[in-house]
Amino acid sequence: MSFIGDTVILNTKEMNMEREFFICQNCLKDTHLKKYCKNKGGLNDICIVCEKQDKGIKIDKESKNEISNLFKSCLRFNHREIEYNPNLDGKGLFEFFCNENSLLNHQYKNYNSFHSLISSLFKNYNQNDVKIFYGKFIDNNEEYDSHFEVTLKNGFSEIWYELKKRLKRENYYNIKPDLLQPLSEIIEKTKIKIRKNCRFFRARIGNDYINESKFTSLIKKPVPFQGVNISAPPPLLSSAGRLNREGVSYLYLSSKSTTAIAEIRPNPGDIVSVGEFKCLKTISLIDLRKVNLLKFIYSQKEIELFSFALSLSKEFMKPRTNKNSFHYLITQFVAETFRELNQDGIIYNSAVSNGYNITLFNPSLFEFVPESSSLHRVNKVSFKSTEIKFTKNEIGFYVEKEI
Ligand SMILES: [Zn+2]
């Protein structure tokens, strides 16, 4: 099966190359488009779609390439190619936008103007532009879906897939040089600072005891673990974790005490010690909690990087099961490469609780806050699940259905 779709959209008359358009904020539906519009400030004009006057974005000679890439990115982010590629039983781009969609108000006032707008937004301006038609299938395996079947937000990354494939057959240090460039770019787009004295939490199952009486060792008071007893274990005693290899000691902290408790997976009835740690200086972290599409909209290469960052974000928060221990090898390898690129650590969402986690490559960047620890009894552990369904794709493989 072979096709490629640029021709799909270019068979409209390109008479309006220099035409300017204005879209109001109300006709922009996707949150990224709304945010972009807000960032661009208060231009006010008549909207080409609803023909009302309001604040919005202007598409002119200077901005058309950037806005076109923005719309293409949002289309890929929200919709599957099979929805708008007529060669894949889709509707065709213009018809697609004449119906309810995630990007634009489809209730236009003027057919010709709306047609010209869509044609201008999805035209190919440069070779590096964001692609909305892939035109190729890639081998399917348990985690690797066809491009057509998935949106960018739920999709996979080719860089990620390549990395996984290579790690199965090559030593990680051979692959590292190829990972430095994409990870450096991700750092630039995701790094944040954590200020000195910010506090985070760490939990450990169990508690300590102190002996209150000089005369007998039989009366012991249960107290929470403190200091080194609740800090990162020394390297020799460190077992492998989500981001650290065996024998490497990283400090894992959480934004809330409940998150810290949930992360150590206690059983109902367990006693847990929770302590606070404070940051000793301003540090730089890679923030993978919510990868911002707007920072990656300028070319196809950036969209691939976005997809890679999104895969990392999902992988970092994935709960550990016996089945995905290979994934830990990858996240450990990626974390190690971030460390070598002079980052202090990574922030990612917790999969088991609200809140987020921080992994510090150098535990001495934080110190235990004396007297901050407390004891907790775990009363209840709850689980959340979603029913999943599988659907057969064009080439006969089953892929998880987007609901
Ligand atoms: Zn409008």
Short description:
The protein is an alpha+beta fold and 403 residues long. 30% of the residues lie in helices and 18% in strands.
Task: Explain how this protein is built.
- The structure is a single chain.
- The chain has 403 residues and is of the alpha+beta class.
- It has a domain of 116 residues.
- The chain contains eleven helices and 16 strands.
- The strands form five sheets. A five-stranded mixed beta sheet has the order 4-10-11-12-8.
- Helix 8 packs across helix 11.
- The site of zinc ion has 7 residues, from loops.
Helix and strand composition category: alpha+beta
Query: What is the 3D shape?
Result: elongated
Q: What do the pLDDT scores average to?
A: 85
Q: Which blocks of ≥5 consecutive residues have pLDDT under 50?
A: 1-16, 141-145
Number of strands: 16
* Strand line-up of the largest beta sheet: 4-10-11-12-8
Q: Topology, please?
A:
Elements: H1 6-10, E1 21-24, H2 31-39, E2 44-46, E3 53-59, H3 64-78, H4 81-84, H5 93-97, H6 111-121, H7 158-167, H8 172-190, E4 191-194, E5 199-205, E6 208-211, E7 220-223, E8 251-254, H9 257-263, E9 271-279, E10 283-287, H10 300-317, H11 325-340, E11 345-349, E12 356-360, E13 366-368, E14 374-377, E15 390-392, E16 398-400
Parallel strand pairs: 10-11
Antiparallel strand pairs: 1-3, 2-3, 4-10, 5-9, 6-7, 8-12, 9-13, 9-14, 11-12, 15-16
The protein binds zinc ion.
